Amino acid sequence: MVAPARLEAQPLGHRSALPRSSSLPLLLLALLGCGSDAGSPGSGGGQDSVSGANASEVQDLRATGYAGLDEDADTRLQGVRVGQDRDGPWVVVTDERSRVLVLDRRGTTRFTYVVPDHDQVETVAVLPNGGLAALSVDQGVTRFDEHGDVSWQVTLPAHHEVCATANDSLLVATHTEREWRGRRVRFDEVQHLSPTGEVSLVFDTFLQRAELLAIAPESPLDATLDTSLASNASDDQVYDRFHLNSIQVLPASELGERDERFAAGGLLLALRNADLLVIVDPKTGAIRWHGGPGVLDFPHTPRFLPTGRILVFDKCWHRGSSRVIELDPLSMDVTWSYADDLWSKTRGSAQRLPGGTTLIAESERGRAIEVDAHGEIVWEWWNPIFDGTSRRRIYRMVAVPTGWRPPTAAGR
Known about the structure:
By secondary structure, this protein is mainly beta. Helix content is 8%, strand content 36%.
């Protein structure tokens, strides 16, 4: 991932309660070890369901600030720890290497897609026909059909987002490095991939740069982009001006029927380094709506809801603790938030589920939770994949639509 544009020193996360040299880890391990029946990772990189018999002790100690527990190395924290018997949609997560894992709510791997010739699979789009598209960072996009077989693979400088459209095509974020005003600057695009993989341009931050700079004038890079190369900058440094990290096709909503800026079919984009959300016309590239500076701090995966609100994972890079918030796009007021023990400095995601709960990926901890409207955790999962003694991070967790099933579950 390209280094963030902001250059000031970054605050440490709030989960620093006690040093890891404390004796508290021993206390926690003793508590976890008493009667624990945690399972072990299953075949194919997945995980059979893990008992949460001691999850309450861990939650209680974490909530009281006893963070001496090294979550990154504690193999007892893996798989589903809360809500093992909870009903809900299956979820999809990547191993950030070459596999896409479909998990049921007990954490059992129900199907594994293997992306050929790629080793940086980051995120996916679940397709209505039972297929799936996987994005590999700076490598491209791979489309699987409803049988789990590769339909095609396109080479692209892809990153952060691939999403499905109503006409069975895909939208994907890409980037291009350009020399501009004495600097090497990374500009992002939205590319359209047809059902058969043909590529065409939809939106280009370089072409829209004047308008984007006008609506986000206080970004730290404005001064440097308006002048020649600063004397204290290295000649080979690439500046990530906007950092597009999310694309969503707007769903139908009552607000969209009243206000054409939010009409169904528009594209909601997050430009992280400008703290900016924009809605653009997919046919012309014109910006219909914008908001975020002064409210958001490095936003990720905004999702326009049928209620007319916007759900967003606000990483709060400069504030030191993350939050998931629901915004009124007309006023930019926060109408709902969740921030309990949440910190993911560089990435994260949130998805509103049909029952009104919210699925959150706390990416840097390798953890996902589902919370209800009152902020209670009703489901919790920890990545069971470790690299040595460190838990592997996750980029995003996606809940599949009602009725979608991978090939083996569909009777292949």
